[in-house]
Automatic annotation (TrEMBL):
InterPro entries recorded: Cys-rich_GLG1_repeat, Cys-rich_GLG1_repeat_euk, GLG1
Name of this protein: Golgi apparatus protein 1
Annotated transmembrane regions: 1033-1052
Top-level taxonomic group: Eukaryota
Record lineage: Eukaryota, Metazoa, Chordata, Tunicata, Ascidiacea
Native organism: Ciona savignyi
Length: 1065
């Protein structure tokens, strides 16, 4: 060749360093030049030389000698005509099966010549002539061998592209093209079109990669979307990848690494892949085949590495999937036509388009995308999705740094952090797009499929051997499996519980679905209209759609029953597994670690996590977490079924006694009434105790009736009060004289519930927790929680300041309304009916009108107690005595006094420093209190009746009482009478302080008696005489005076009787 005049100039220009006598080296050098580089004469000379080589008996003889063993195996290559040129081209067909090194080396050398021109490939022109013409793939005049350049790589590339794009071809031509791609699989130089298009790119990006064994292909594939990659090379690479998608043998590395696995798993049987073409197995077929069996039989490490490369390749370029280019053509044109194809951008654009356009639901494009995800195994290995791996790289380092690169747990970790602060916007979008498709098909998540396949079949009536044929929607399968998770209280499941591995996968799948409304296909389909109707005015933040729908559950059930059923079902599952509450778990992660760590990693205690969060809610510094817990509690109140543990513990009692009730609040009230009526047994009572004693009154929204009735009052009186921690309810209590009657009625119900069962009093149980443990724990252990408040009242002086102030407030409520003091009703039941019937009717009317009774019954009983003329029962007398003492120690506990004397207290007393009772008494004695309704006179006379009700006098005379009146029983003024007698007869025997204070009190008592006499006349005078310490003496004197007047009147009447005038005789 070097001596030829046709190519001498070309060789000097392009191959100056090539050995002149080495024709193959010179031929290779010239073949590697572009067509336009060589002169026309040299083109013709090279073509003729190549043709002579393939038909030269010398080369044919060499081939027969070097490849003797191969020809013995492949007898179809033995041609008797040494000038036919078919021996070498036939041996090239079986090059990958030939073992003799000398033969392979010879064929490698000669293949550059053969693949340089399609006309030199055995039977290629004859088999593909029509396709070359019809697809306009010919260059110049392909039938005129003398007038065309020596290289025809672009003709082959054109046919390869048409075949990869699905253009119909004859089977014999199709076979030729595929055969050619297989023969060029190992050496980049043999794909002449790609070689020329990527020559510069190879030098720039893969300069150190040696040719052979598909290494250059792999390097160029990895740089396909590199900004430095030329468009021509990228297009040529795409054609090559399409051929691999048609025939896995077009990839030397895949064929070589997976040959044994393909045979072992019988992947060459027809029907294993959607891209099969006669005896050809497409890449997707190989991927699916090896993926199906990878869980049961091991795929070699080398093969798995190659599979990963090609999975990532398919996810990077939609052009490589004929199904997507065909079935998603409309979406690509309308939604993604301007999308720059870079590392899977178009595929994710299509995912997003299908996800957002509900008219494509179940369409061919959606199915094509789901098939692609399944082929690439992206649900297990996130790195197969190059776009996702790229956009989520930052988030992975921030949130999932504990996992090694490529760890299959990284994708679940990313999903768990979907709405965390560590999540970037792009990563979040990629995750939602991918998970939307994974969540639709049982088979798209291999881990879930493998762990739960048999149990889904056994427990949920799925197909016995192949769940792919199972028509049950994934949401139904998940719901069924969730019902068989071995949670606390599910002893009735016996043998039908899930295995630990399936339980883990069900939790993971449900947790992922709970993260976003769109990731739950059944929910999204059922609630599409409802979401627009109820959640469109104030659009919920991403991930908050489910929360919004829960808030409107009552309306959903009526107007959109299918959606209501879905929300109800998912909420029940949330109650059993708080991991499914995405907003809650995302916000509460630090709180869970701090307060509920012992429950997090134990399946046994999964159902206890929410109770732990509720228990520790008031300790949380994270407001979003506390709000999430509150929302969960609010939803639970709507339907008792949402509280799974409550249902499991109490379902028999609910069905027996409260079958018509639905809301948890109504059910609890109903059962609590049954307990009071002793209908439920002790076992049921203990089961109910936990749920009935939950802090229901922590938030006014937890009490639907109160919340509805008091909305206006809350806005007017408590608008600055933050919800939660019972603050709004406490605000209403403090302003109960200002709230509306309807609100007061509902507030009374709350107060009554709390006094009957203090464990429902959130404020009390939180504020007085340590004091209850210190002083009143015995009442809880004995099952008498209703005695807690009474216990705290009797230990009031020892309580912590905050608890003490709260107990004073609760005691004031009790003294204001007899219905809030069950001890009084029990102690004074007969006395009230006997002495205070009128006041009881008044109290009932107050309740009906939504007004506060302000202690009218207590006032009646105190009056009877103070007067002493009627005999009260001992229990009632002691109770009233205690109440009077309490009121004298704290004037705020006296509702009648507070109601009648509020203005006088404000005007005459220093509230912060004065003893208010003493202040009122002093000003009353000095006639500064002229309001006849003010209760100071009654207050003084109560102290006279019982010295314990007069703290000042009792303190001043404590020593004197011990010395002179220790044997005198308390009550009915006996102690005071004793001191008065000593003062009258032995004045000096009393201490100075007692003597002075007693003198002052006597004057006050006299003044009080005078005022009371003016107010109440003869009846009051009679009461005063009876209650006086000298009552016997006074009554004797009054009787003596009355008798004297009677006798004197009788006598005087006799004396002054006129003598009758008799007529004069």
């Amino acid at each position: 060749i070097a001596d030829s005049k046709e190519c001498q100039t070309d060789i000097e220009m392009y191959c100056p360093q090539t050995t002149a006598r080495d024709n193959l080296s010179i031929l290779t050098c010239l073949s590697n030049r572009q067509d336009d580089d060589l002169s026309t004469d040299c083109h013709h000379y090279i073509w003729q030389y190549k043709l002579n080589i393939t038909m030269n008996p010398k080369f044919d003889f060499i081939a027969r000698q070097l490849c003797k063993s191969a020809l013995e195996v492949h007898k179809e290559c033995v041609d008797p005509d040494p000038t036919s040129g078919k021996v070498i081209t036939c041996l090239l067909d079986f090059k990958d099966q030939i073992k003799a090194r000398s033969c392979v080396h010879f064929l490698d050398k000669i293949s550059v010549i053969v693949f340089g021109d399609f006309r030199l490939i055995c039977d290629f022109v004859e088999n593909c002539y029509d396709e070359i013409s019809s697809n306009q793939c010919g260059r110049n005049h392909t039938h005129d061998l003398q007038s065309v350049p020596h290289t025809q790589g672009q003709v082959v590339a054109c046919l390869e592209e048409k075949l990869a794009d699905g253009i119909e071809m004859s089977k014999i031509c199709q076979h030729q093209i595929i055969r050619l791609s297989e023969l060029s699989a190992d050496d980049f130089n043999l794909d002449r079109n790609l070689y020329f298009k990527c020559k510069v790119d190879r030098e720039n990006m893969c300069p150190d990669v040696q040719s052979g064994e598909g290494r250059v292909y792999k390097c160029l594939f990895n740089h396909k979307f590199d900004e430095r990659m030329s468009s021509g090379c990228r297009n040529a690479l795409t054609i090559r990848q399409k051929l691999v998608a048609k025939d896995y043998k077009a990839s030397f590395q895949l064929q070589n690494a997976c040959a044994e696995d393909i045979v072992t798993h019988q992947c060459l049987q027809s029907g294993n892949g959607s891209n099969d073409h006669s005896d050809l197995i497409g890449l997707s077929g190989i991927l699916l085949c090896l993926e199906i069996f990878s869980g049961e039989r091991t795929v070699s490490g080398h093969c798995e590495a190659q599979l990963q490369d090609f999975r990532a390749m398919l996810m990077s370029d939609y052009n490589l999937s004929p199904e997507i280019t065909h079935n998603c053509a409309a979406e690509i044109h309308s939604k993604c036509s301007g999308q720059i194809e870079k590392a899977g951008a178009t595929i994710h654009c299509l995912m997003n388009a299908v996800k957002d356009d509900k008219s494509t639901e179940g369409g061919s494009c959606q199915e094509a995308l789901m098939t692609l995800i399944k082929e690439t195994n992206t649900a297990v290995d996130y790195t197969m999705d190059v776009a996702l791996a790229t956009d989520c790289n930052e988030t992975i380092h921030l949130a999932c740094d504990d996992y090694m690169d490529g760890d299959p747990m990284i994708l679940p970790c990313l999903i768990d952090n979907l709405y965390s602060l560590k999540m970037t916007t792009d990563c979040q979008q990629r995750l939602l797009e991918l998970q939307y498709f994974i969540s639709k098909d049982f088979n798209l998540d291999p881990k879930f499929h493998k762990a739960c396949k048999s149990e889904a079949s056994r427990l949920c009536h799925g197909a016995e051997n192949n769940t792919e044929n199972d028509e049950m929607p994934l949401s139904v399968v998940l719901s069924c499996l969730h019902r068989h998770i071995p949670l606390p209280g599910r002893q009735d499941l016996a043998e039908n519980t899930l295995s630990p591995s399936c339980t883990t996968q069900v939790h993971r799948m449900l947790r992922q679905r709970a993260l976003d409304y769109n990731l739950n296909p059944s929910l999204e389909a059922a609630c599409r209209v409802a979401l627009g109707e109820f959640c469109s005015i104030e659009l919920p933040e991403k991930g908050g759609e489910f929360v919004c729908l829960q808030d409107h559950l009552e309306n959903l059930t009526a107007k959109h029953p299918a959606c209501g059923e879905q929300i109800t079902q998912l909420t029940v599952m949330e109650g059993e597994d708080p991991d499914l509450e995405n907003v809650l778990i995302a916000a509460c992660e630090p709180m869970l670690q701090r307060f509920c760590n012992e429950y997090l990693y134990s399946e046994r205690f999964k159902g206890e996590i929410m109770e732990c969060l509720i228990e520790n809610k008031d300790k949380m510094s994270n407001r979003k977490c506390a709000d999430g817990v509150t929302h969960f509690q609010l939803i639970e109140m709507k339907d008792y079924h949402f509280s799974s543990k409550f249902v499991r513990s109490c379902k028999d009692d609910i069905q027996a006694h409260c079958p018509e009730m639905k809301s948890k609040a109504d059910v609890v009230k109903c059962l609590s009434l049954e307990i009071r009526n002793s209908v439920l047994g002790m076992v049921s009572l203990h089961r109910l105790a936990h749920y009935m004693f939950l802090p229901q009154h922590e938030n006014i929204e937890f009490v639907p009736g109160l919340h509805k009735a008091c909305q206006g009052d809350c806005q007017n009186l408590c608008h600055n009060v933050e919800p939660g921690k019972a603050m709004v309810i406490e605000c209403l209590r403090k302003n109960k004289d200002l709230i509306s009657p309807l609100c007061r009625k509902e507030l009374f119900k709350v107060e009554k519930e709390e006094i009957e069962n203090p464990k429902t009093d959130f404020k009390l149980m939180r504020t007085c927790k340590s004091d209850i443990k210190s002083y009143c724990l015995w009442h809880l252990k004995e099952g008498n929680p209703h005695e807690i408040v009474d216990c705290l009242i009797h230990n009031k002086k020892q309580l912590q300041s905050q608890c003490r102030e709260l107990i004073k407030s609760r005691e004031g409520e009790m003294l204001s309304d007899i219905e809030l003091d069950p001890d009084l009703k029990q102690s004074c039941d007969k006395d009230m009916n006997k002495y205070c019937a009128e006041e009881m009717n008044v109290t009932l009317q107050f309740h009906r009108d939504g007004k506060d009774p302000h202690g009218v019954i207590y006032a009646c009983l105190k009056k009877v107690h103070t007067a002493g003329k009627e005999v009260m029962s001992k229990t009632c007398d002691n109770h009233i005595k205690f109440v009077i003492e309490e009121e004298n120690q704290d004037y705020k506990l006296d509702p009648q006094l507070m109601l009648a004397c509020v203005n006088q207290i404000t005007a005459l007393c220093d509230i912060d420093h004065d003893d208010i009772a003493e202040c009122l008494k002093s000003n009353f004695y000095r006639d500064k209190i002229t309001n006849t309704k003010c209760e100071v006179a009654r207050l003084l006379l109560e102290g006279k009746s019982d010295i314990m009700a007069d703290p000042v006098l009792h303190e001043a005379c404590a020593a004197d009482l011990d010395e002179h009146c220790s044997e005198i029983p308390e009550g009915k003024g006996r102690k005071v009478n004793c001191l008065t007698r000593v003062l009258t007869k032995h004045k000096t025997q009393l201490t100075h302080g007692c003597r002075d204070e007693l003198a002052i009190r006597k004057n006050m008592w006299a003044h009080a008696a005078k005022v009371r006499l003016n107010l109440h006349g003869v009846q009051e005078l009679s009461d005063l005489l009876i209650s006086s310490e000298n009552s016997s003496y006074l009554l004797s004197m009054i009787t003596l005076v009355a008798m004297s007047i009677l006798i004197l009147g009788t006598l005087c009447g006799r004396c002054t009787k006129r003598t009758p005038n008799f007529p004069t005789q």
